[in-house]
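Here comes just one.
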Amino acid sequence: MFDNQNKPTGVKRVHLATLNSLRAFKWLYSHESAFKQELLLLLIAIPITFIFDISMKEQMILILAILFIIFTEIINTAIEAVVDRVGLEIHPLSGLAKDLGSAAVLVSLTIATIIWLAVLV
């Protein structure tokens, strides 16, 4: 069991959690090329949504589809980090965990593509 009495609460907890999240984003940007590519995709996608004659709701759906890819990439990277932390030796379950995380990213890319096609075509 761990001691919950010494853990920060309230605004201090939220502040520390935000700092941890920002540190994670910095690490992702420094170490994960896929994350950089997906951020670039987001930066390109946002202005593209203003070119087309679509509603603000449709613009938000398109942007959220790209953010979903980034979200999935973050989860995939977390899975990879945990697997690597457990051990660097080759094990079928370690490979499976990494492959499943990668498959989740592929599914999110497919979903985003379908959403973009459905809105714009």
Observations:
- DSSP finds four helices and no strands in the chain.
- The chain has one domain: 33-120.
- The domain at 33-120 is CATH 1.10.287.3610 (Helix Hairpins).
- The two ends are 54 Å apart (CA to CA).
